[in-house]
Amino acid sequence: MWAQYWGGTRQLWVDAGAARALRRRVRESMASGGVAADGSVALSRRETRFVRRVADDVRALVPFLAFFMLPFSAYALPVIVRFFPGFLPSTYHSSSYRVAQMQKRQKVKVEAARQLRDALSERLLATEGPSARERDLLLDFIHRAAAGEAIPLTQLRPLDRYFATHLKLLDLEPRRSSGASLGSWLGSTLWLCPAELRALCTFYGLSALPLPTFDHCANQLILHASRIQHDDKLLVQEGDRWPTELTDEELLEACDERGLPTDVTERDRLVAQINQWLAFRRPPPPVSAELTLFAPALATNTRAK
């Protein structure tokens, strides 16, 4: 075990040096009008994600070292890692371990999607208003997906305006400070309750507090949606190269981040899932953050296999 941690620390040191070199290349590129001294251009998707991963690992290393200095922490560390795998930097885990964790997380996503779907259906059935037609279309989509029907995400695009208006994740503070009671604006906007927001956080593997607040869950989801949108742009910029350049682990990671099924091992199916996702997200007009987050959860097949 200690050899694994020592090897992970050395790998993190090497990765940190490589990330510094990439950031220096970006600074040179900006200073020279877009092209660095060696003729390179902006970072590729893999390089961008590498720099972000190293930054996350360095942030995770600080609390890990602080915990490691506590008495008897070596005996408690395996228990902490079992329940909080993100406690350690990613270099402390092997590639096969990360793949196995993403594939195992599919069961968690299915349960979270079922809870979210059931709660949202009850809320929609109790709601009347000028958007009744869109509400009925959304309920029909939920019922068909719950029955095990494989429905393309593109069928939800006509409901984008409904999601952005009635299931909005933004502008929480103005509503809260307006003086209206919680129930009055919940009924008019269908703002999700903390349990439903936490289900979305669980679906995407985001950190959630034991007693989640609107702000915590909404901010986590908004940040995740922003990262997905940015990563989609990088994939599109890669053009036709990404299906062959991405490794199996990178394909699985891309599916997991977007809430797509990760219990598949065939490379062709993983590529097809991402292609369908890009077709769903392709503008015009751009898909809202709300639909970006809700669509994979609502389309998840929750029937037992």
Automatic annotation (TrEMBL):
**Main localisation:** mitochondrion
GO annotations of cellular component type: mitochondrial inner membrane
Q: Where is the protein situated, by its record's location annotation? A: Mitochondrion inner membrane
Which terms does the UniProt entry file under GO BP?
Answer: intracellular monoatomic cation homeostasis
Name the Gene Ontology molecular function terms of this record.
ribosome binding
What are the coiled-coil residue ranges? Answer: none
> What Pfam families does UniProt report for this protein, alphabetically?
LETM1_RBD
Q: Which UniProt keywords apply?
A: Membrane, Mitochondrion, Mitochondrion inner membrane, Transmembrane, Transmembrane helix
Look up and give the membrane topology term.
Single-pass membrane protein
Q: What range(s) does the Letm1 RBD domain occupy?
A: 104-305
Spans through the membrane: 60-84
Q: What is the name listed in the Swiss-Prot or TrEMBL entry for this protein?
A: LETM1like protein
What organism is this sequence from? Acanthamoeba castellanii (strain ATCC 30010 / Neff)
Q: List the lineage, top down.
A: Eukaryota, Amoebozoa, Discosea, Longamoebia, Centramoebida
